[in-house]
């Protein structure tokens, strides 16, 4: 799933996150030979860049929908893990692991999927171990180890730690925790008021101001709110997300207080307030802006914003985005044939406690037949809804019609006889 939004910052990191066509940044690179879709994998498109990503999202979403995936689907994901614990985006059957192809995004979502499935503790522990080993010295994570960290990858890694019940505050390099790494990318009180709480994709090596990024903000927000996939969405707050509290007097500008990192305690609410404002201003969706191209709806960022707001207990602020995705999401999912997009839409619907039957049915159809399915999860997706009378409603109506007809005939006959005797 390639996008120009992230290719400019870290070649393939965005490829797993947006579901859009490849951007011009790869125009000079020879196109790889499309990989054959292996048995057990959800979706029919080339898995080279998103195989582990879409499989992990599909397994997570279906498990939350009480669908027990086929052994081949689970086995494909576990078989992609390398001996050191990391996952690549995709590894052809029989191919050796290459540490240079392992990435934090694939590893993070695979860990969350296996936690959701249950029964894969050894693989989860190895995945968490890989994340710990490949954390940057500033506490962040890069898409590929050895590169500068970014907010999306750091947020996904923190999601995986939460899923594995590993406190991110205790996962550190050189004294910098995962929360410290996440804070590197969040705009604080030194930023303009309408940008506070947002996340930048990466920091400026020259020390310049952080630039808000829609996808980075949306994905980092789930981590800042203490969440992971799947989002339960059971906590409800009465108030809107609390914006970052800043002293805006002129004397405070440029002070150490205004330039201080956003604390972890305030981080989730601050980015939630930013996302809620952006959604309200953008017609209930976030926007992808790429240099040289017209702005377009950012389906991925909108979905992750809805997940984050649901996680932080603000379903009212997420509702508009959930509704928008319900109306427009088929464009993103290509009518339910894109496994990664369909799985993400299902995760959003689950977090918002919306009807999930159709999406569950679509996603189930994109992979191997499941071992077991909760009938209530897919009933409306596979057959017309039955009446509350247990399915005999049409026969009851026919019977009533016949009785009325017979009764009417008798009355007419009696009336004729009565007229004859008068």
Automatic annotation (TrEMBL):
InterPro entries: SQ_cyclase_C (IPR032696), Terpenoid_cyclase/PrenylTrfase (IPR008930)
Composition-biased stretches (Low complexity): 368-384
Leader peptide range in chain numbering: 1-27
Residue span, Squalene cyclase C-terminal domain: 51-142
UniProt keyword list: Membrane, Metal-binding, Signal, Transmembrane, Transmembrane helix
Transmembrane segments: 395-414
Domain of life: Bacteria
Presence of the UniProt keyword Transferase in the record: no
Single GO MF descriptor: metal ion binding
Stretches for region Disordered: 368-388
Protein name: Squalene cyclase C-terminal domain-containing protein
Naturally occurring in which organism (per UniProt): Kitasatospora xanthocidica
